[in-house]
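User: Assemble these into one structure.

Assistant: Restating your components, then the assembled model:
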Amino acid sequence: MADDAPQPKSYSGAAGGWGSLRGIARTELKERAGPMALATLQEQNKPGGFMCVSCAWVKPPEPHLLEFCENGAKATLWDLTTRRCTPEFFARHTVSELRGWDGHALELQGRLTHPMRYDPATDRYVPTSWDEAFAAIGTKLKALDPKAVTFYTSGKAALEPSYLYAIFARAYGHNNLPDSSNMCHETTSVGLKKVIGSSVGTCTLDDLRHCDAIFHLGQNPGTNSPRLLRPLKEAVERGCKIVVFNPLREKGLIEFIDPQDPKQMTLGPATKMNHLYLQVRPGGDIAALIGVMKRVLELDEQAKAEGRPRKLDEGFLAQHTTGFDAFLAKLEATSWEEIEHHSGVTRPELERAGDIYAGANNVMGIYGMGITQHVHGSQAIGLLVNLLLLNGNIGRRGAGCSPIRGHSNVQGQRTVGITEKVELAPVDKYRELFDLETPPEDGHNTVAFVEALLEGRAKGFVGLGGNLAMAVPDHSRVHQAWREMELTVHIATKLNATHCLPGKEAWLLPCLARAETDMQESGNQQVTIEDSFSHIYGSIGRRDPASEQLKSETAIVCGLAKATLPDRPKLRWDEWQADYSRIRDLIARTWPDQFHEMNVRMNQPGGFYRGNAAHERVWKTDSGKAEFTDPTTLNSCGIGQAEGRFHLVTLRSNDQFNTTIYGHSDRLRGLEGSRMIVLMRPEDMVARGWREGDPVRLETDTDGRDEELRAVGGLKVVPYDLPEGTLAGYFPELNPLVPLWYHDELSQTPASKGVPVRVVAGP
Ligand SMILES: Nc1nc2c(c(=O)[nH]1)N[C@H]1C(S)=C(S)[C@@H](COP(=O)(O)OP(=O)(O)OC[C@H]3O[C@@H](n4cnc5c(=O)[nH]c(N)nc54)[C@H](O)[C@@H]3O)O[C@H]1N2
Ligand SMILES: Nc1nc2c(c(=O)[nH]1)N[C@H]1C(S)=C(S)[C@@H](COP(=O)(O)OP(=O)(O)OC[C@H]3O[C@@H](n4cnc5c(=O)[nH]c(N)nc54)[C@H](O)[C@@H]3O)O[C@H]1N2
Ligand SMILES: [Mo]
């Protein structure tokens, strides 16, 4: 490269460290969370306290003095802001005007304070009463065909409101229960289930403390689950080897300073977090894993020939798995040349990874959106499982497969009945407990809902949290259609862009945040949530609510259900609202194996583990065994490489939580100031004669699969260390580029990590 070529951006500090504390302080100042904020943070993730509203990482039984991270603190402070988005604010601004604001500016108005109704005559949200809102929404829902109405959930609402929301949907007459996990770990729910019979991870914290190698694919703990960094660091310190697969060199997987370790904070040095960093190209994991496994088999052959201990667990393979021979044939037939081409990684690097696998007794596989958000994401999960199966690395201490979940209760919502698939709903229990017949046909997942919306079949929408119109693919098309719905109802803490797309009748129902007191007839209510390791914890808020008008999510679901459904003796909405322990009793009766004595066990330190069959080597698959995947492709992207076509990775920064943008600093990547950027290899910039900051536009290149013009302009190009053929930029700004039909083949999870695009110079 020439001397004056653009230099890739990077952050000189380690993940964690003082930078993370400054990150918290800045948000606190901006958000004016008040003097009680620190006291509230000290209760976060502790028994008897409230559970973090950010990610779904474990709350350990012996919490640290401050058991929260930069992002958990930001999320809490963001909820506890003293700013208020009042009826006066809505009186000052028409909804059309607010549609021109960006998401950050909308949320910065603070907490919603009153139930609001959209008035089409003035194009404004106007204050209303809860009674009026419930009655009018109930009347409208009764008038609509239930099958044309969707009840969305965004992964944050606790088990209690989620359980009731699912019952409400089914009693009303549909299974249209998409949730944010449809855009996230649905690939896990379907793909992992297919191969090991479990829709969630098999590991617990104990496994993380006993593994000696971790294969870490497509997950960014520094940004998205910072509390995972400390257990990873402890693993490294006891000799565990971490192999990372990621197109970007993410800081948290490179070096980390524990902000809660005073010695390391003052004296350093930072902990080096990986033994091998493989910068795969987008979707390159399938080929890369095949390369790793080729090496493991070679080492096994050598060991066998020399009479040394084997690298494969033959007993396990014979007793517990199926499909190994077909996969072996695929492995042998795949050349190193193909592997290097499709993975973007060299043979020696992959062989080193194979050596690490073969040299470890207990291996864990950890993964995130870099694996799930691809057209062949389910297959990539299958390949990771193949690797683990080779040496029996599932269902024993220190080993297993661990998807890192996103929203704080996204896994739990699925556990308690939020699903569009009838086969996953507790249909018999609904009949027994509530005389409730579940509608027989499957409902909409997120993609099916958006399809219905674009075809004019969706008439009503109720959102229990979330910002769905911004989070979905193809969102510029979605925005026009959204306003055609007869009814839109949002249960929310803060104003967002989806709320500014009111249907013909539209309501904004403000709810309590998790850190706030939830006073009902029987006193302040606890709720429960589930983490990535299938532990269930009680959570209780103690802060004064942001406004006297707020209701809890549970109370709002009960209010809506009562106003919509005819009286049924066994649907006791008032009693459930009065005392949430009654809802937990129902959850326990619905799934007694997992939730027995829930009201007691939820308060034990570290919560309770609801168990996992695959963890015990019981495989609830079609074959009754763990199934090897025989891949049909070597790259997870749905549209392959071609001249001038790049694969775009849509990213999150440490200064956002999904569509909630706290600020414009992506500190861990050394990127500051703007989110309208495209990261590009310096070589690719030089080839085009571009300099940092030059204006560019991205256009989707569907290889002729549809005629739709999808483009996002107004972007600036920034040099960044990326594999060949790769671009990166931010979610949700770049969502208009993701075609709705470009999704995982099994689960329909949008493929937001390998979007085929072209880059065009100019604004
Ligand atoms: N601060 C913060 N925390 C969050 C969130 C947030 O927005 N902000 N969101 C929450 C939610 S809902 C979720 S689901 C999780 C998401 O957390 P993650 O699962 O970490 O998701 P992403 O940051 O979207 O992408 C993860 C990584 O995948 C890499 N990647 C992209 N393509 C590929 C590929 O083809 N192969 C491989 N191996 N890697 C690839 C990217 O470079 C990135 O580092 O975080 C949760 N926590
Ligand atoms: N291109 C691209 N698209 C993606 C992704 C990607 O990586 N790339 N990631 C996908 C993923 S993993 C996910 S999970 C989805 C996220 O999709 P969503 O879950 O729909 O979006 P969020 O941004 O998490 O929702 C934020 C809003 O939730 C409301 N809210 C916040 N807290 C609460 C609360 O306690 N209660 C209630 N009732 N409301 C609350 C606020 O109004 C806030 O504006 O986006 C997906 N879309
Ligand atoms: Mo997510």
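The pocket of MGD (ligand 1) is lined by residues 54-55, 71, 184, 217-220, 223-225, 245-248, 250, 280, 282-283, 285, 368-370, 404, 406-407, 649, 651-652, 654, 656-658, 753 (CB under 6 Å).
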